[in-house]
Amino acid sequence: MSAVSQSSRPAISRRFRLQWEPAQNAHVLLYPEGMVKLNTSASEILKRCDGVRSIAEIVADLEQAFNRTGLADDVDAFVVMAMQQGWVELHT
Amino acid sequence: MNAAASTTAPAIGPPMWLLLELTYRCPLHCVFCYNPVEFASIEHELATADWIRVLREARAVGAVQLGLSGGEPVLRDDLEEIATEAHTLGYYTNLITSGVGLDERRVRALKDGGLDHIQLSFQDSTREMNDFLSHTKTFELKQRVAALIKAHDYPMVLNCVIHRMNIEHIGTVIEMAERLGAEYLELANTQYYSWAHLNRDQLLPTLEQLQTAERTVNAHRERLGNRMRIFFVVPDYYETRPKKCMNGWGSTFMAVTPDGTALPCHTAKMLPGLSFPNVRSSGIREIWYESEGFNHFRGTAWMKEPCRSCDEREKDLGGCRCQAYLLANDPAAADPVCSKSPHHHIVTEATARAQAGSNVTERPLVFRGPKESRALLERRPPPG
Asked: Does residue A92 lie within any of the structural domains?
């Protein structure tokens, strides 16, 4: 069972900033006096959390971009964790 | 770049945290300030163009978190220009301020320039203690500035330095931060360097005060959840293992003092026998990767016993070099907070005096100020 609705539209919280850091060859989330260095899957999901695309659309987009299937559970779990961390908010 | 630099560079990560201490001037006189006690002897602040060059060079080697601090950085008229340039370069920019001098016009100009966050200091939740500890009448002003920060939609970190005289107010400090709408609250137990070291006997809490405070903080954390995050910086005098200072010497952090000296930690300038480069004459890349000052205590090769053979040496890197110098008179000694240090008794004697409470009224507090700084300079030879 999914903890978040497939139609909800996640967006990066305005308290965080997602950006590419060439020196670390990674995307990072920046917040007051802190930083989270993201792995590739995390950054690919977060890049698509624009408040416009639904979770279902993000999953479809990722599956197409990486030629994979069955990513829905991973995306759900990540979005739930990201919400707990305060990185993303849901737009309904 | 020469061959030696290109072989050492990959092993050392970028200076991700850049702290610019724009000025040592400050309207407050806090008894726990970490600025050097001899700050009054430093007269020539870097010009705007120098700070902007530092920003560009540090960004090019990977700096991403930027602190604009001091002293009171708002005293610099070019703060907006520096913050705007930082934003353009891609920094996440944090202003660390007492709030004195921040008004509607400047808060708005900083927002327009792209400043990301403001950290506002309080000394206590009561007017009496706030104003006593800072030797100013600033309590109401800080409340007004907190409201301005919120009105302009900055994330707000409130910072309160904790010590013997305010630790029992910790619950009301948390409630005040909540009322003011802070997203984060830093309850920073005093670290005993510089002015705080001079005043240590009056500032060091008892173990019971500390344990009660920790219980209070944990109860509030449970109540608040994610609404406001509380950082409780533990005072290392009550520990038996030292902290890994600055995440490791020269591993993450670079500070630049008002006169352009580049340092691997806020207080490293006190250490004798080390020379630190100045941004007026050296580039940031060269300073970070090649300077003697930044390389000296990197890694573990510099260690003496008991650190050298200790199986925890990689974990804490021997603790804090400044604390080793202040307490053991040797920057390469083990941090005396460590129970394996032959100087650990200096720490336990200080905490025992705090328990007894006998030391509190024997000496007056020394408030940070130019006059006091000059008086201290006359009494002691300059370090190093």
From this structure: no
